[in-house]
Design brief:
transcription, transcription cis-regulatory region binding, mainly alpha, TetR family transcriptional regulator, 232 residues, Tetracycline Repressor, domain 2, DNA-binding transcription factor activity
Length: 232
Amino acid sequence: MPSPDRPVKSSEEYAVQTATPEQRKVARPRADALRNRERIVTAAREMFVEHGPDVPLDDVARRAGVGNATVYRNFPDRDALVREVVCSVMDRTARAAELALAETGDAFEALERFVHVSADERISALCPMVSSTFDQHHPDLEAARERVERLVAEVMDRAKAAGQLRTDVGVGDLMIAAAQLSRPPAGTGCLSADRFVHRHLQLFLDGLRAPARADLPGTAVTLEDLRRPCDQ
C-alpha cells in the first residue's frame, strides 16, 4: 500500500503509447513521427493543466520542440488534440491498475495505484474539458472511458469479494472523491497543491478499507447516478 510519507511512483513508469483504442489505430508511422506525436501530447497535457484548453497551439508546439506544421499534421484542430490528451491519460491510468493487479494480485493495491496515478496525470483537471470542448460521444473517448470504468468496477468488485473494500461504496463514490481531492479545475493554480494531494488521497483510500468503522448516509453512488441530471 502506498504510504503518505513515501512518494508514489511516477506515472511515467506506467506510460504506454497514446492512441491505443482500436478506433485510433492507423498504419504504423516512422519512429521519429511517433516521438513527435508523443512530445506534442505530453506538452499539451502540461499546458492544458496549467492554462486550460484554450492555450495557443503555437505555444504547445514550442514546448514540444516541434514546428506548428507538425502539430497540425497530427491533430487537425484543437478538439482532436484535447481528445487525444484525455484519451491517453485515461489509457495510462487504466494501465497502471492493470499492472498492479498483474504484479501483486491485490485488488485494493490496484485500486490505490489507479487513484494515485490518476492524480499524477491530472485526470480530474483534464476530463472536465470534454463537455465544453467537443463531442462527448466521440468513439475514441467512449472507448477510453468505458475501459477505465470497466476496470475500476472489476477491481472494486474483487476487493469487496476479498474483504478488503467496504461494501457500501460504489464506483461513483470513488470517482467523485478522487476528483475532488486530487485537483481543482485546470488553470487555477492546481500545481501548487501537489504537496498535499497524495497524502489526502491516501487518507481517503484508508477510509475505504473493510471493515467499515461507521455506516455511510445514503446509498452507494453508481456511474449512472453521476450521469443523471442534478434535477432528477
